[in-house]
């Protein structure tokens, strides 16, 4: 049986994340090794030529699953019939900026894109916002798409999740694959909270294995939360291949599910769980099944975690108020 191709729209296709992302989508890593895809690349007029070059390279790979590439500079066309949309195109921060500094620069991009998704995407559209500040950009896009169920708009904290797993594995000598149930709470920013109190390392509680509160507070959390800045400092440009990898992981897990006994972290519209005000796009522990996610319920949140979750959520509320004042939501 031939499967109908899935339409995947990627914005910022000519950027550095786009370059690391598109080849993996076309080779089946986003959705599955048996799922054909059609790519719809969305750029601004100045990015069109470079996007055409990338499309030529995609052609030259002769990917069996890639059934077409179209390039647009009009969001209404770029999102037409999209089943999956990866909103990457935005201005990255440079040295010395916080992600929040990008609010007004990038906010204007996500409102028209949200409207175009509302008006033109397929009924089953799933949206991942990568462009920073990712959570609040997702909120802007979601607010501009009243006909799309709000839960289809998500923001990427999977890179933070993967960074936290990697740091924990390095500290404990565990294999990455032995680490489960790690959670990123809150905003994809320096206030995010990587939580190991419910995480497991080869079946044992991670906080007990680590047993070092000072390392947790003074090394682990800041290393994960400030990793984006450390990469900008070292590379002179923001993370690209690891960000693309996390985008692939995010959508793959959303579509194909979490493993039994594990969960992942996604920025999603809050339903009020864990005291996060309804509607804010905040990172939570989620399980995925049959193309849907659910917040993991019933976790005990200790005082240490509560203070950090609250601080990050407070920042999200402030970002929401700022974009409201700018007329973006
Ligand atoms: P880049 O500058 O290399 O590429 C951005 C591309 O987006 C450019 O080609 C530009 O022409 C295009 N673009 C700009 N406005 C557009 C619009 N309105 N429509 C379509 N395309 C548009 O940047 P990059 O390194 O690829 O990063 C992209 C974004 O991802 C940045 O905001 C960056 O901060 C963010 N990011 C997020 C995470 C995360 O974990 N959430 C990780 C890394 C980077
Ligand atoms: C990252 O976490 O690497 C990205 O969000 C880029 C940035 O600005 O930190």
UniProtKB/TrEMBL annotation:
Lactate/malate dehydrogenase N-terminal domain segment(s): 7-146
Positions annotated to bind NAD(+): 12-18, 106, 113, 130-132
Origin: domain of life: Bacteria
Enzyme nomenclature, EC number: 1.1.1.37
Pfam family, one: Ldh_1_C
Active site residues according to the UniProt entry: 188
InterPro entries reported for this sequence: L-lactate/malate_DH, Lactate/malate_DH_C, Lactate/malate_DH_N, Lactate_DH/Glyco_Ohase_4_C, Malate_DH_AS, Malate_DH_type2, NAD(P)-bd_dom_sf
Keywords: NAD, Oxidoreductase, Tricarboxylic acid cycle
Sequence ranges assigned to domain Lactate/malate dehydrogenase C-terminal in this UniProt record: 157-322
Enzyme class: oxidoreductase
Cross-referenced SUPFAM superfamilies: LDH C-terminal domain-like (SSF56327), NAD(P)-binding Rossmann-fold domains (SSF51735)
Catalytic activity field: (S)-malate + NAD(+) = oxaloacetate + NADH + H(+)
MF GO annotations: L-malate dehydrogenase (NAD+) activity
Biological processes annotated in GO: malate metabolic process; tricarboxylic acid cycle
Keyword Metal-binding attributed: no
Keyword Ubl conjugation: no
Residues that hold substrate according to the record: 93, 99, 132, 163
NCBIfam families, sorted: MalateDH-SF1 (TIGR01759), PRK05442.1 (NF003916)
Record-linked HAMAP family: Malate_dehydrog_2 (MF_01517)
Function: Catalyzes the reversible oxidation of malate to oxaloacetate.
Family to which this protein belongs: Belongs to the LDH/MDH superfamily. MDH type 2 family.
Protein name: Malate dehydrogenase
Organism: Streptomyces purpureus
């Amino acid at each position: 049986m031939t499967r109908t191709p899935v339409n995947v729209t990627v914005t910022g296709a000519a950027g550095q994340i786009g370059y690391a992302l598109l080849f993996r989508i076309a080779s089946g890593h986003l959705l599955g090794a048996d799922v054909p895809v059609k790519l719809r690349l969305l750029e601004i007029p100045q990015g069109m030529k470079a996007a055409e070059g990338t499309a030529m390279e995609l052609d030259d790979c002769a990917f069996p699953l890639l059934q077409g590439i179209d390039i647009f500079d009009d969001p209404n066309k770029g999102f037409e019939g999209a089943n999956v949309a990866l909103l990457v195109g935005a201005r990255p921060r440079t040295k010395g900026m916080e992600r929040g500094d990008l609010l007004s620069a990038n906010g204007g991009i996500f409102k028209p894109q949200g409207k175009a998704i509302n008006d033109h995407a397929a009924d089953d559209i799933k949206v991942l916002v990568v462009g920073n500040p990712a959570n609040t950009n997702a909120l802007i896009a979601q607010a501009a798409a009243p006909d799309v169920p709000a839960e289809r708009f998500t923001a990427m904290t999977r890179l933070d999740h993967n960074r936290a797993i990697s740091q924990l594995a390095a500290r404990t000598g565990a294999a990455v694959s032995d680490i489960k149930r790690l959670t990123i709470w809150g905003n994809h920013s320096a206030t995010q909270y990587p939580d190991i109190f419910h995480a497991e390392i080869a079946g044992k509680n991670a906080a007990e294995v680590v047993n070092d509160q000072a390392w947790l507070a003074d090394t682990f959390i800041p290393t994960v939360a400030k990793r984006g800045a450390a990469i900008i400092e070292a590379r002179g440009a923001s993370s690209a291949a690891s960000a693309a990898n996390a985008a692939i992981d995010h959508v793959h897990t959303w579509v194909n599910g979490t493993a039994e006994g594990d969960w992942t972290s996604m920025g999603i519209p809050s339903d009020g769980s864990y005291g996060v005000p309804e509607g804010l796009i905040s990172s939570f522990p989620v399980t995925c099944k049959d193309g849907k996610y659910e917040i993991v319920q019933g976790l005990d949140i200790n005082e240490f975690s509560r203070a950090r979750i609250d601080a990050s959520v407070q920042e999200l509320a402030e970002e929401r108020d700022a974009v409201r004042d700018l007329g973006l939501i």
